[in-house]
Amino acid sequence: MTGDPWGRVDSDGTVYVRTNEGERVVGSWQAGEPAEALEFFKRKYDALVTEVDLLEQRITTTDLSPAQADTAIAKLREALVEPHVIGDIDGLRARVEELGKLSAARREEVKAAREHARHEAREVKERIVAEAERIAAEATHWKNSGERLRQLVEEWKAAPRIERPTEAALWKRMSAARSAFAKRRKAYFADLEGQREQARISKEKLIAEAESLSNSTEWGPTAARYRELMREWKASGRAARDVDDRLWARFKEAQDVFFAARSEAFAERDAELAQNAQVKEELLAEAERLLPVTNLRTARSALRGIQERWEEAGPVPRDSRDRLEGGLRRVEETIRKAEDSEWRRSNPEARARAEDAVNQLRTAIAGLESKLEKAQASGSEKAVREATEALEARRAWLVEAEHTLNELS
Question: How far is CA 103 from the centre of its chain?
């Protein structure tokens, strides 16, 4: 009888394995030596050990799923029920059971990881939905917001799936947000289109008036009306871009026609005003040569002719008008004063009144001188003071009256 720590071969060729429960027949061997039988059944045991080693390595070092591990463990358990091998079967069974525990732990890890991933995925999709709902309720930058909604849909697709009821409820909110955004955007552009159409109608009316005024020669009122039309144009809003550009081109063309004609007319008028100013410069120089007045009649006659030619010369540029008009007025005022002086000198009534005033003042002064002498003789300071003040006043008046009388002489 040939033996081994884990088995033996009986004399009749029966092969036994030793386990904790005792010996068990695993086969018979008639073809050769008993040692060969032991080696044969030990190799079969080694094959099982290799399977256990490989499974242990896959469980611990790869992403083998718990379900696949459980299937492999179940096959090993079945293979170890009554294996026809020689070796430490009980020890190998214990290893397989440890692999079962390892797989169970791995299953819990995977479960926890999946739950964590589902939780994160749920948070991601809730964030996506919340942003989509915020865009649907508040957004006004339609192009950027629409692009962001499309990005959110792609982010949703890229995010891991979560439990079906929650996924369905969140997607329903996502779809509702997209629909609400599309509805708001459609309403906005419909309203915008209405505003643009109203702007087009308003601007067509402004263009019609601008074109009707383009040939006007009432420069001031028409220019003022064009300014009002421009304010109305800006206040009327914008039509569609291509339409607004065409309308503006027509509106501007009408204005350009008017203002070009006005500029041409003003250029002609400026040239005429410049000629008028040159004429008045010469007339002013001629008028200033009349001063000082030596012969009133000649100066008056010459001034009258200058004034007539001045009126015939017409308007001048604004920047030289005040200077020219002021210069002529100074000459006119000087000659007028000379006329007034001459009239006073040649007026008998005025001379008589002046002589009478001088005589009355002289008489009053003589009386006051006599009154002052009496007051001084009486020693009354008050009487002296009153007589002195009255006398000084009459003497001052006399100086003025004599000056007037001399002018009339």
Answer: 63
